[in-house]
Design brief:
Length: 283
C-alpha cells in the first residue's frame, strides 16, 4: 500500500532541473482523473479553477473548509501524488497557515503552493513583507515536520506577475525573496509571469531550489524551458479557463445557430464514466 510518505518522496523526486515535472492543473475529481489518465506523474490543483467550480471568485475568497474538502476528494481518487494550491494559506497568521497545512496533509496531498500576493488590500500593497511571508513558510514547514511528512512547499513569488517595483530591480528583488523563502523552509520557488529565456535562466542560476514556471499559449515549448534548467512547469488555470470557454462557445452555438459543432469531439461518455468508476474502486 502506498503511504502519504511514499507519495511525498515520489513528488520530491520529480523535481529535477532539466527534467521538469509537468503539471496540467485540475479543478475537480473528473478533471484530475482525466489528467492522471493522460499520463501525469503528479496532479496539481488550480486555486482559480477550484474556486470557480465551487462558486467563488479567485483571489483568496474561497473558505478553507471548502478547499480542503475538494483536495481530499481529488487525493482520494488518484494514485499519483497531489499538490494543492492553497493561495495565501487560508488565514491571517502563521498559526492559521500551520492549521491549513495539517488539513492538507489529512486530505492526502503532499505538496502546496503558498503565494506572497495580498488580495483585497485597501492600502494598495500587493505583496506581503518578506519577513512575514518567511514566517508563514516556516510555520508550514514546522507543521509538516510535526506530522512526519516531507511536504513539498512551493513558494510562489508574484513580483513579476503583478509587476511589483522597478523593472530593472525586479530580478534582484525576486532572488532576495526566493532566498528568504528557501531559508525558511520552502522546497521550491514558483515565479509566474516569467517565460522569457534570459530571465528564466537567471532565476534558475540564482535560486538554490527547483524553479517552477507558469506556461500556456505563447510560452516557449517545454523542451526549451527544460534546457534552461526549469524543474517544474505548471499550466495553472489555463485548462479550466479553456474548458469554460468551450462551454460558452457550445452554448452560444446552440442558442444562435442551432447546431452542435463545438462539441463534436468530446471525451466519450463511457470513457469518462469508467475513469470515475475506476477511481472509486481504487479508493
Amino acid at each position: 500500500m502506498t503511504t502519504i510518505n511514499d507519495k511525498a518522496e515520489q513528488f520530491q523526486a520529480l523535481h529535477r532541473r532539466g527534467e521538469p515535472v509537468i503539471l496540467a492543473n485540475a479543478w475537480d475529481v473528473a478533471s484530475a482523473c482525466v489528467v492522471q489518465d493522460a499520463g501525469a506523474k503528479a496532479v496539481a490543483t488550480t486555486s482559480a479553477g477550484v474556486a470557480w467550480s465551487l462558486g467563488a471568485p479567485d483571489g483568496d475568497r474561497l473558505d478553507r473548509a471548502s478547499a480542503l474538502a475538494l483536495i481530499a476528494r481529488v487525493a482520494q481518487a488518484l494514485h499519483v501524488p497531489v499538490t494543492a494550491d492553497i493561495e495565501e494559506g487560508f488565514g491571517a497568521t502563521p498559526a492559521d497557515v500551520a492549521e491549513t497545512i495539517r488539513g492538507v496533509l489529512a486530505a492526502g496531498a503532499v505538496g502546496v503552493n503558498i503565494e506572497d500576493a495580498l488580495h483585497g488590500r485597501s492600502d494598495g500593497g500587493s505583496l506581503r513583507a518578506v519577513e512575514q511571508q518567511a514566517e508563514r513558510i516556516a510555520a508550514a514547514r514546522a507543521a509538516a515536520e510535526s506530522a512526519g511528512v516531507r511536504l513539498f512547499i512551493n513558494a510562489r513569488l508574484d513580483t513579476y506577475l503583478l509587476s511589483v517595483g522597478d523593472e530593472d530591480a525586479r530580478l534582484d528583488a525576486t532572488l532576495a525573496r526566493a532566498a528568504a523563502y528557501v531559508a525558511a523552509g520552502a522546497s521550491g520557488v514558483f515565479v509566474p509571469g516569467v517565460v522569457d529565456p534570459k530571465t528564466v535562466s537567471a532565476l534558475v542560476d540564482g535560486i538554490d531550489a527547483p524553479l517552477n514556471v507558469l506556461t500556456g499559449p505563447g510560452a516557449p515549448p517545454i523542451a526549451e524551458l527544460a534546457a534552461l534548467g526549469v524543474a517544474r512547469i505548471s499550466l495553472g488555470s489555463s485548462i479550466a479557463s479553456a474548458a469554460y470557454g468551450l462551454v460558452q462557445r457550445a452554448a452560444r452555438e446552440a442558442f444562435t445557430a442551432g447546431t452542435y459543432e463545438t462539441i463534436s469531439e468530446p471525451l466519450g461518455y463511457a470513457t469518462l464514466n469508467d475513469l470515475i468508476a475506476q477511481s472509486v474502486r481504487e479508493s
